[in-house]
Amino acid sequence: MRQDTLITASDITMKVPIINLSLDDETIDQVVNVLKSGMWAESKNVHKLEKEFANYIGVKNARAVNSGTAAILCGLHALGIKRGDEVLVPSFSFIASANAVLNFGAKPIFVDVDRETFNMSVDDIPSKINERTKAIMPVHLYGLPAAMDSLEEIAEKHDLAIIEDACQAHGAMYHGKRCGSLGDIGTFSLYPTKNMFCGGEGGLITTDDDQLHERAKLYSNHGQSAKYIHSTVGFNFRMQDSNAVIARQSLDTLDSRNQKRQANASYYTESLGEITDIETPLVPDGLTHVYHQYTLKVQKRDALAKHLREHQIGFGIHYGIPIHQQQSMIDAGLSTKLPITEQLAREVISLPIHSHLEQRQLEHVTSTIKQFYM
Ligand SMILES: Cc1ncc(COP(=O)(O)O)c(C=O)c1O
Fold it and tell me: Is the CB of 133 under 6 A from ligand 1?
């Protein structure tokens, strides 16, 4: 089954599309102004975005980069991850976190997930820690924060760093604190379908630690401490200024769009909760889910998917092949057994949840699903 990492025409043309990408005229005018000004590379909008995002997340520092993957790479570099180190990552996620670890010659160690929350299973961690383990990279999957208190306890006990993959969790809260402020360093994606976006590819790194920030920032800019003065190695992961214009606008409207996602989720959960085959998403007390995805667990997943497609309803399978079962990971000698992850891969289906959905579209989704189970 197709994975929707890249946007296709049918993703936007269905009766109820899985995504809806649009920009208001004022933002487009601001982008045009940046293009007219000639300030095409990193400039004042990037710097304003960094300040505004750090302020929103509740940390001292943010660095804007050109993808979530770049943000994770900068985060791992800042933490000093190197060849031979091991980093604990979930396999039930997008592959970027595991790929980034491999890029440093380090080894991603796949941890199973909790069936109810889809997030890293704290119980599966202790047996995977050894003297090579250097960090835990929890993913706040679908926009629900991972079990950070327990993860922090483990990290402290074993002297491990925590790098949050908050690429799906812009604005999500864990007991009053935002994702991206909970570990040593936080990483975000601004890919077009994310809750916060930038009109192309983009990412952000957040941290309270000035040294980690400095290391991440240098790495994102070829290690340049001043023009053509390179104090460390690095890459060009810089964000272009026109993308920062869109990201800033998207940050301004993030909370209200997240609230609409939450209202859509409540509607689905109320309407579909009583169908025996369906398990709706669970939100533990004290956590705020921002529903990057609204994902059901169902036994008849593939038949339901076919039914939705026939009724012009977009859906996503996040994720049909766990990372540890991808050919690239098998070839890297990383195949393992993760029973819950493997079962979820057969059961999950995500419904359209974006903030542009109209009531009639939500009703079309729920009545179509009810019809399937009649
Ligand atoms: C959980 C997770 N991690 C990392 C990434 C990588 O972000 P990007 O696609 O911006 O590189 C994504 C984006 O798809 C993601 O969903």
Answer: no
Distance between CA atoms of 84 and 66, rounded to whole angstroms?
A: 27
CATH number, domain with residue 280: 3.90.1150.10
Structure confidence at residue 355 (pLDDT): 97
Q: Which residues of the chain have pLDDT under 70?
A: 1-5
- Residue 207 belongs to what domain range? 25-252
167 CA to centre of ligand 1 in angstroms: 5
Q: Is 165 in the pocket of ligand 1 (CB under 6 A)?
A: yes
With contact defined as beta carbons under 8 Å apart, do 137 and 101 qualify? yes
Distance 257 CA to ligand 1 centre (A): 20
Q: What pLDDT, on the 0 to 100 scale, is given for residue 2?
A: 40
Cα 150 from Cα 164, distance rounded (Å): 14
Q: How many CB atoms lie within 10 A of CB 216?
A: 31
Rounded CA separation 308/16 (Å): 10
- DSSP readout, 109-174? EEE-B-TTT-SB-GGGSGGG--TTEEEE--B-GGG----HHHHHHHHHHHT-EEEEE-TT-TT-EE
Kindly report whether the global pTM for this prediction surpasses the value 0.85: yes
What is the DSSP-derived secondary structure letter of residue 227? Answer: T
Q: What's the first-to-final CA gap in the chain, in angstroms? A: 25
Tens digit of pLDDT for each residue in 320-359? Answer: 999 999 999 999 999 999 999 999 999 999 999 999 999 9
237 shares its domain with 198: yes
Please give the pLDDT value at position 4: 47
316 lines ligand 1 (CB under 6 A): no
Ligand 1 binding pocket includes 89 (Cβ within 6 Å): no
One domain for residues 184 and 43: yes
Gap from CA of 67 to ligand 1 centroid (Å):
8
